[in-house]
Amino acid sequence: MMYRRSFIKKSSLLAGGVLLQNTLASAIQLSSNPIKIAVIGCGDRGTGLIKVMQTLPDFFKINAICDVLDFRLNNAKKLLLDGSYIAYEDYKKLMNSKDVDAVIISVTLSNHFEIAKAALLAGKHIYLEKTMTYDIPQALELVKLKENYPKQILQVGHQYRYTPLYFKVKEMIQKGYLGKITHVDCRWDRNSTWRRALPSSYLERAVNWRMYKEYSGGLAAELLSHQMDFINWVFDTRPKEIIATGGVDFYKDGRETFDNVQVLFRYEKENMIGTFGSTLANAHDGYLFKIKGTKGMVSLLINDGVYYPEKETVKELLTVDGVTGATKIEWNTDGGIPIDADKSKDGSWHSLKDFHNCIVGRKEPTSNVKTGATTAFCVHLANEAMYNNTIQYWKPEFDV
């Protein structure tokens, strides 16, 4: 029987510290000099990562920035006040720089593969934003190519693998606190056109690339891939069967990628279903991530989590060797137990710190080319199912 005392004290999962993976620990010593890094793609994500790295001056020195759009380069320059960097419009020229040891690639999804390939060939370490590649063939080729460059680090930007809250939930699942999990319910909703303002109309596809199939994996790639990747990681799994639907149901503005999608994954090995939904026409639910098991459910937001035990589990929680009144459990107003985890830094901070540590310590990232490929396969299959009205199936060659 899982008594209250052992539930609380056994792993300190609901109260107190979190047992972080080795890459999150600070055991690795800083190198004598910060890693010389370049940011390729200076849109919202690229400039956001610049700001994060500026809080880690002992880890990174930004020696170069690159973007094909002048106004984005200028936005990045405003953040780099010391002027000790070179601005490029052509990433190929940047690859020849001896003052760059690593690159962050935060460009249009359709360009991820070609730039990552160029960086590997140039001997650079790579932080490649999610989703890793635009399609399955590119992911398979990148996995194969990376085998030829074992000393170079390639980390994929699925930062939930580095967030203390999500790592704690992973521990809870693996230690059985949720029981047998049969359903994972994921949403990421917004009330937004997802359209960026244009300095000139001819830049429509360059700026609003997420709306066009030629460049984008749509909502599945940009939002839902985070939750798909977390499930792949926690359960070491992949979906057997993929069903999906969607449409341009609200924004009749010429976009091609759907503004309303629903995806269903059947995980045959785990006897589990995962549902993933996103709409751009209502923001009430926002981000939701519910993991449902026979002993309890975890409800996650981006930075908060609550454990909701089932009735029988509550009885166990309230019993210590038949005596009530030992270690106090903090309950919220709707019968849940808040999950305590360090929230002082976000996932981007933790993942970039780990990128540094993997380079210095010559360690494989938790989010690497193979795990990134697995999630890229999931996204591609989901899009194939929803755009072609077909059921997709996992193939043996996807087990990289």
How would you characterize the overall build of this protein?
The protein folds into 2 domains: 209 residues, 2-Layer Sandwich (Dihydrodipicolinate Reductase, domain 2), CATH 3.30.360.10; 139 residues, NAD(P)-binding Rossmann-like Domain (Rossmann fold). The protein contains 12 helices and 15 strands. The chain is of the alpha/beta class. Helix 9 crosses helix 12.
Can you lay out the helices and strands and say which pair or pack?
Blueprint lengths: L3 H6 L25 E6 L3 H11 L5 E7 L3 H8 L8 E3 L2 H4 L7 E4 L6 H10 L3 E4 L7 H11 L7 E3 L7 H11 L6 E8 L15 H4 L10 H18 L5 E7 L12 E8 L4 E8 L7 E7 L2 E5 L4 E5 L1 H7 L19 E2 L8 H15 L7 H20 L3 E2 L7
Index terms:
15 strands, GFO_IDH_MocA-like_dom, Gfo/Idh/MocA_oxidrdct_glycsds, Gfo/Idh/MocA family protein, alpha/beta, Dihydrodipicolinate Reductase, domain 2, 12 helices, about 400 residues, about 30% helix, disordered N terminus, single chain, Rossmann fold, nine-stranded mixed beta sheet, signal, 2 domains, six-stranded parallel beta sheet
